[in-house]
Amino acid sequence: RNRIEVVLDMPPDLPEVWGDANQLQQVLLNLIVNAEQAIGQDGQITIRGRAAGKMVELMVEDTGPGIPQSAISHLFEPFFTSKPNGTGLGLSITHRIVADHGGTIEAFNLDGGGARFTVLLPRVVASQPAQ
After folding, report:
1. Is 93 helix (H, G, I), strand (E, B) or coil?
2. How far apart, in Å, do the first and last CA atoms of the chain sit?
3. Dihedral angle sign, alpha carbons of residues 106, 26, 101, 14
4. What is the pLDDT of residues 9-64, one digit of tens each?
5. What 3-state DSSP class applies to 104?
6. Are 28 and 47 in contact (CB under 8 A)?
7. What is the DSSP string of 61-111?
8. If we measure between CA atoms, which residue out of 58, 2, 6, 52 comes closest to residue 27?
9. Fewest beta carbons within 10 Å, which of 14, 48, 113, 116?
């Protein structure tokens, strides 16, 4: 849509995370829609995953203009929005879902433009056999 390329960079051995698949899908959907809206037209969204110790790190990056510095500390507050027709609920709901899953979410501006949202979620740890 809008001539936006989506790049998926997920290793085949990415560990599983505990959680509600529908809620975690909502997290990714909210981040991707926000990235698409930030870009407008002609850009790229990159979705990356990697193991990070006891966590799985998911990153959604866009080639949009980035997040205004004055907005970064308020992004996850309910009803905060920088969009003319936004409700300010998408990122606050995303934050709540991630927190309810024992994870964290942060937003950063990238050098040279664009933004990155990083979600850390606890990975599934195989139980040790009884000895």
Report:
1. helix
2. 55
3. negative
4. 999 999 999 899 999 999 999 999 999 998 988 999 999 999 999 999 999 999 99
5. strand
6. yes
7. EE-SS---HHHHTTTTSTT---STT--S-HHHHHHHHHHHTT-EEEEEEPT
8. 58
9. 113
Measured CA to CA, the distance from residue 130 to residue 95 in angstroms comes to 37
* Residues across the chain: 131
pLDDT digits 0-9 by tens, 65-100? 998 888 888 888 876 666 667 666 789 999 999 999
Q: Which two tokens stand for residue 65?
A: 């203009």
Q: What is the pLDDT of residues 97-127, one digit of tens each?
A: 999 999 999 999 999 889 999 999 999 976 6
Kindly write down the DSSP assignment for every residue of 7-67, as one continuous string: EEE--TTPPPB-S-HHHHHHHHHHHHHHHHHHH-SSEEEEEEEEEETTEEEEEEEE-SS--
